[in-house]
What does this fold into?
Amino acid sequence: MPLQFTPLHPLFAAEASGFDLAKPLSTEQIREIDEGMNKYAVLVFRNQPLDQDQQIDFAKSFGPLDLGLRKLKRNPHRFRHEELIDISNVNPDGQVAARDHAKVVGNIANQLWHSDSSFQRPRAKYSMLQAITLTSWGGETEFADLRAAYDALPEHLRRDAEGRSAEHYALHSRVMLGDDQYTEEQRNSIPPVEWPLVETHAGSGRKLLYVGIHCRRVPGMTLAEGRMLIMDLIEHATQTQFVYRHQWRVGDLVIWDNRATLHRGRRFDVTERRELRRTTTEDIDTAAQLAA
Ligand code: OGA
Ligand code: MN
It folds into this structure.
């Protein structure tokens, strides 16, 4: 049976059904998911609880896996795989982390509009997030369509963005939130990278606006003007008409294209347990193009 799509928003995002993601995917099934991703950029699979090995195997069908900030801080890990990213407020010992624990800063940093690992090369392509334990309120995840945002750019913003790049830096948002206890070596271990502000999405051929909270300056502009431009572009891109809000249910697996969307988590009570598990693939195609 082919994969079926039910749109969740007028511009992007769809619920996808018909595949059992716990089983190895055929080449044809991978192609159908890729095709859906190219069109919708966010796919929601309901009721697909995957164990740790199954989520890793599923993710690897779409490319090599990214470690994100674990490259920097190899803290004790709860999972069987280094590439399974622990999106939770739970300590390695299984208890909910104290609210001043670094893990909670990570949760809060995820509440800023971002694209996963945009601060590195290769950057992230797909992220797959599975809901394990949810809070009594809040904790939704919102997605913004950067292609629709580009299409609707007002002329003056388009002129400022076109032909320019932004510098993305891994610790920019962390430092902003007061998480600044990094050694010189850690600060330098993920050097900043530049990405054009306007890009063409490899999956759909549509232009898009590539911004997010990891952007810390716009080369060729003063720091003040560059930061203001980034803030204006993020504000534009995340207006409600471009946003799909995902209300989680346990067993949901949501896949998004980090090249074409921004996302953020929403507020929740950090003393309540919230656990999701993420896998992320590397955007090796763009990295290869740049190296050529
Ligand atoms: C992520 C992320 C947001 C959330 O997993 O990359 O940003 O709602 N999550 O937990
Ligand atoms: Mn994220």
